[in-house]
Amino acid sequence: MSHRVKILKFLKEKEGKYCDDCLSKILGIFPRQQVYQICKILFWKQQIYRKKDKCFGCSRYKIVNWISSKEIKGGIKMTFQSEKNGKDSICIEQLSSDEFENRVKEYVENKFGKKFSEKSLQVGPDKFHKFDFSIR
Ligand SMILES: [Zn+2]
User: Fold this and answer.
1) What is the rounded distance in angstroms from the CA atom of residue 66 to the CA atom of residue 8?
2) Who's near 84: CB < 8 A, 6+ residues apart?
3) What is the C-alpha end-to-end distance of the chain, expressed in Å?
4) How remote is the CA of residue 94 from the centroid of ligand 1, in Å?
């Protein structure tokens, strides 16, 4: 089983939020950077969620990874920026309930029918808006 599958399987089974450190320890994937690399790619591919929250493993408040269709309830839009120093910064934008309804509708439509744009949009020097839930 590849590390990628291991991580996905674990997150799916646990339905919990786990930081890179805990995933590394629990799944025996070393060095920890490997977990980071895999999770970053899974996040780009929208196979997992990745943002700051309480880790189910170590209970610390840090960047955690999880899979859950229920989590869409949070009504958040994530913007991923890759910085030159290699660190990730994730901006969370709260939406009004109407905006959120539309987003979910669009998201579901995208998920089950219409094409989901994979093109990243440049929004500033070295800033790329990786994806959102809108239809293009
Ligand atoms: Zn942890």
Assistant:
1) 9
2) 126
3) 36
4) 25
Q: pLDDT by residue (tens digit) across 48-71?
A: 999 999 999 999 999 999 996 554
User: How far, in Å, CA of 79 to CA of 89, rounded?
Assistant: 8
**What pTM does this model have?**
0.52
* CA 60–ligand 1 middle distance (angstroms): 6
CA 22 to ligand 1 centroid distance, Å? 4
Ligand 1: centre distance to CA 73 (Å): 23
Sketch the domain layout of the chain as residue ranges: 1-67, 69-136
What is the whole-number distance in angstroms between the Cα of residue 51 and the centre of ligand 1?
13
Name the architecture of domain 1-67: Orthogonal Bundle (1.10)
- 20 CA distance to ligand 1 middle (Å): 7
The torsion region of residue 58 among left (phi > 0), alpha (psi -120 to 50) and beta comes to alpha
Cα–Cα separations (whole angstroms), residue 81 to 40, 63, 90, 104, 129: 11, 14, 7, 23, 7
- Pairing of β 49-54 and β 61-66: antiparallel
| Ligand 1 geometric centre to CA of 21 (Å) | 6
